[in-house]
């Protein structure tokens, strides 16, 4: 009995002493600001700042290597908190969100072949350039859904990625995951977008998609400063997009959309049929 | 020498800690989503198992056995292993930040893991000599790493497959682990000790 108590107590005492001494002797000095910065960061380790994770970014900010406003998930709030810790002032960075510039789901856009492989867009893209006839359209296999750290992307039943603008933090992870660059970053304040990613000629676009941009120039004629036509594909000029919404009703293919106000035009495909083949 | 090799092979394949003895299932399922992290975890386990078996061997034969305190084995081993891992973590953090980055984050996870305690107890049960204990511990760690890396590789591929909704996540992972365990049962009879 006594031996057991003495033995276990002795082991415990030796271990405790050793740990106590080691804690003093091997203490690693850390910049106290680094811990404060790390606590103020969202802690999602998305890598949008360019560092491998939040702890790396915290160290870089504490050492002064990186600016405190480079964390898109944290946004303005985090940037201000970090600036407070460092005792400096920062510039406001306009928030951006990802936009899927395609609305050709299974019901509106044609498939080249029936894909039965791995559920991954990058794998599908390697097989004869992907199952979709359109070279730029969303493949709908959900690589971006899995890449999103914030659960901001969902798939419609028609296999089209949809971004929740409130949840999107602008970290650009989905842009990296997409093999077709069907996502772009746009200022959150602009809600009107050209939802097409095909540079093909109008006649060709019509063959495989009911809602593709045919490069007809009507939007540019309606609101010249808000649109640019680049290689047969219209784009909203995000710097002067105040009146861009005026062209929504004019677009013959209905591929200009207001992403927040969905009632501004009738929904595409509601009264049309699936293209043959 | 031959017996040492037999102990090693037996610990890695035949009596694999995860897939045949079912020890250390928690990190096996928890840290096996990516091959990279599973390798880091495996290295940490090999290291901790080797150190723990050395220390517990001395505790058993120089403190517990002389005083007839064998019944204190479990609690004494847990105490010693936990404080030892803490100590090693501190020293590594100070001495080599690079090693700490790759290994250190896994150390607290396995301080009192059943696989580590299992190595220490099995060493005594099988009455291994000091060298045999060390070889057995390293073999057990390698076996754990092997199982982890194989399983992580499988899970990475499963992530991309159209798994039925009801089986997604942990369900399919457990089924896969069961199949992997069945495959390892094929090694039974390879070594007779």
Could you write a compact summary of the structure shown?
Chain A contains nine helices and eight strands. Chain A is α+β, with helices and mostly antiparallel strands and 277 residues long. Chain A has two domains: 31-93, Electron transport complex subunit B, putative Fe-S cluster (3-methyladenine DNA Glycosylase II, Chain A, domain 3, Orthogonal Bundle); 96-264, Alpha-Beta Plaits, CATH 3.30.70.20.
Question: How would you describe this protein?
Answer:
- The complex is a heterodimer of chains A (277) and B (193).
- Chain A is α+β, with helices and mostly antiparallel strands and 277 residues long.
- Chain A has nine helices and eight strands.
- In chain A, the strands form four sheets. Chain A has a two-stranded antiparallel ribbon with strand order 1-4. A two-stranded antiparallel sheet of chain A has the order 2-3.
- The relative contact order of chain A is 0.11.
- In chain B, helix 3 (35-64) packs across helix 4.
- The longest helix of chain B has 30 residues, at 35-64.
- In chain B, 37% of the residues are buried.
- The A-B interface holds A 3-4, 7-8, 11-12, 15-16, 18-19, 22-23, 26-28, 118-120, 123, 146 and B 59, 63-64, 67-69, 72, 75-76, 79-80, 83-84, 86-87, 90-91, 93-95, 159-162.
CATH class of the largest domain in chain A: Alpha Beta
- Structural domains of chain A: how many: 2
| Shape call of chain A | elongated
Strand content of chain A: 5-15%
Strand order of the largest sheet of chain A: 1-4
Question: What is the approximate shape of chain B?
Answer: globular
Alpha-carbon distance between the two ends of chain A: 86 Å
């Amino acid at each position: 009995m006594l031996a057991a108590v003495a033995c276990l107590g002795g082991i415990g005492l030796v271990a405790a002493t050793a740990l106590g001494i080691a804690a003093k002797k091997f203490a690693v000095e850390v910049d106290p600001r680094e811990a404060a910065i790390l606590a103020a960061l969202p802690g999602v380790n998305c890598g949008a700042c360019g560092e491998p994770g939040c702890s790396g970014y915290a160290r870089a900010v504490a050492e002064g290597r990186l600016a405190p406003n480079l964390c898109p998930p944290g946004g303005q709030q985090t940037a201000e908190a970090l600036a407070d810790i460092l005792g400096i002032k920062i510039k406001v960075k306009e928030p951006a969100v990802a936009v899927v510039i395609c609305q050709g789901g299974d019901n509106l856009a044609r498939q080249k072949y029936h894909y039965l492989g791995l559920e991954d867009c990058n794998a599908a893209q390697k097989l004869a350039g992907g199952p979709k006839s359109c070279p730029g359209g969303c493949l709908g296999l959900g690589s971006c859904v899995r890449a999103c750290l914030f659960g901001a992307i969902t798939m419609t039943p028609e296999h089209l990625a949809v971004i929740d603008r409130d949840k999107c933090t602008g970290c650009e992870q989905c842009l990296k995951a997409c093999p077709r660059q069907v996502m772009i970053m746009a200022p959150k304040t602009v809600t009107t977008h050209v939802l097409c990613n095909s540079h093909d000629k109008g006649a060709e676009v019509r063959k495989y998609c009911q809602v593709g941009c045919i490069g007809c120039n009507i939007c540019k004629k309606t609101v010249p400063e808000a649109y640019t036509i680049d290689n047969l594909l219209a784009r909203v000029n995000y710097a002067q997009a105040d009146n861009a919404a005026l062209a929504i009703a004019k677009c013959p293919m209905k591929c200009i959309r207001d992403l927040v106000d969905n009632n501004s035009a009738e929904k595409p495909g509601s009264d049309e049929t699936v293209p043959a083949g | 020498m031959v017996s040492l090799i037999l102990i090693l092979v037996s610990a890695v394949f035949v009596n694999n800690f995860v897939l045949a003895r079912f020890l250390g299932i928690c990190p096996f399922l928890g840290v096996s989503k990516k091959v990279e992290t599973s390798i880091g975890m495996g290295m940490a386990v090999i290291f901790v198992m080797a150190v723990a078996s050395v220390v517990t061997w001395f505790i058993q034969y120089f403190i517990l056995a002389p005083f007839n305190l064998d019944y204190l084995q479990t609690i004494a081993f847990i105490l010693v292993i936990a404080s030892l891992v803490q100590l090693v973590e501190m020293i590594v953090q100070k001495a080599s930040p690079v090693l700490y980055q790759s290994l250190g984050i896994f150390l607290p996870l396995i301080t009192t893991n059943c696989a580590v305690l299992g190595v220490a107890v099995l060493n005594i049960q099988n009455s291994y000599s000091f060298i045999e204990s060390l070889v057995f511990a390293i073999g057990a760690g390698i076996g754990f790493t092997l199982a982890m890396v194989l399983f992580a590789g499988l899970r990475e591929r499963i992530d991309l497959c159209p798994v039925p909704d009801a089986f997604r996540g942990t369900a399919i992972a457990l089924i896969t682990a069961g199949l992997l365990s069945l495959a390892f049962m094929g090694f039974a009879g390879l070594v007779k000790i």
